[in-house]
Specification:
The chain is an alpha+beta fold. The protein contains eleven helices and eleven strands. Strands 2-4-3-10-7-9-8-5 form an eight-stranded antiparallel barrel. Strands 1-6 form a two-stranded antiparallel ribbon. The relative contact order is 0.18. The mean pLDDT is 90.
Length: 311
């Protein structure tokens, strides 16, 4: 998969920073003609190279690791990807394993885990305890700090693990519209919810400031020049998990890092330009004797990323 050209990369990162920014605003920050930015940006969205979506944070999240028969990996992954609760679904290059992140209340877990999927041999469910980075905070790394600051939304908290949150019917209408398309115009949302555009803008800002919905620009890392992707499972003493996680989150190669329950308290999604860069990352990572074991698994195929089902 060929990487995007420089301008497409810059537009993509602008959408990663602020997925609802107007083409005019993006053009001003990037110092490019507005017609060029609007045309190139619209093309990226139209062919789904980049998809801007809303992702809710109304339920706690869990990592589900599923061991399958080799001939059942794809069917199991696609069934998990079709579930609205799943955020990402990956097939791993080891032991016919599928890994998914799902957001669901604890009392609903038996209904999910009780579903019989043909070809599943076993599964492990690991609650997410803390996020150090999610793809909502990850950037392509091509914009300057000043350009990022000019686009960044104020007062948007980092993603947190949440539970038991409720929203009213109007907020649900807004959230559903943003989940379908994170760039849904204020006018459209105002019509759906039955109030003014000014009220729509205010309600969306409130939902984002409360961390109840996050706007994400979903793009394949290979298009950003990072075709090698791996999950790292890091075994360490619980008191070292936060240090390792926060240090991992400082690397531009780390798309996702979280603290979870279980034998491996830290999990990270790492991207690289090639195997040599991945090797260097593993050799010189933020371990400093605090990690007892780093188990790395290459990602073989993506079935869902950032809440978006892939082809």
């Amino acid at each position: 998969m060929d990487a995007l050209d420089p301008l497409a990369l810059r537009i993509t990162e602008a959408l990663q920073v602020n997925g609802r920014a107007s083409w005019r605003r993006i053009a001003e920050v990037l110092d490019e003609p507005i017609r060029t930015v609007a045309r190139r940006g619209a093309a990226l969205l139209e062919d789904k190279t980049v998809q801007v979506v809303g992702l809710t944070a109304l339920a706690p999240t869990h990592l589900l690791r599923v061991q399958c028969r080799p001939d059942a990996v794809e069917s199991v992954a696609r069934l998990l990807a079709a579930r609205p609760e799943s955020v990402f679904v990956y097939a791993m290059a080891e032991s016919a394993e599928v890994i998914a992140e799902i957001g669901i209340e604890f009392d609903s877990l038996p209904g999910v885990l009780g579903v019989s999927l043909d070809g599943v041999l076993s599964y492990r469910l690991t609650p997410v305890l803390q996020y150090f980075r999610t793809v909502a905070e990850w950037r392509a790394g091509v914009l300057t700090p000043a350009e990022v600051a000019a686009l960044e939304l104020p007062d948007v908290p980092p993603e947190q693990v949440r539970t038991g949150l409720v929203v009213d019917e109007v907020d649900r209408v807004i959230i559903d519209a943003l989940v379908a398309d994170g760039r849904t115009p204020f006018e459209t949302i105002a019509t759906l919810a039955g109030f003014s555009q000014a009220t729509a803008r205010r309600r969306i800002d409130q939902l984002m400031q409360r961390g109840l919905v996050r706007i994400r620009a979903v793009v394949d890392p290979a298009l950003l020049g990072l075709p090698v992707e791996a999950l790292l499972w890091i075994r360490c003493a619980p008191q070292h998990a936060e240090y390792i996680g926060t240090t991992l989150a400082r690397s531009p190669l780390v798309r996702y890092a979280a603290m979870v329950m279980g034998e491996y308290p830290v999990v990270a999604d790492v991207t690289a330009r090639d195997i040599a860069e991945l090797r260097a990352f593993l050799a010189d990572g933020p371990w400093e004797g605090r990690a007892e074991l780093v188990h790395s698994i290459l990602l073989l195929q993506t079935f869902k990323r950032g809440g978006v089902v892939t082809k």
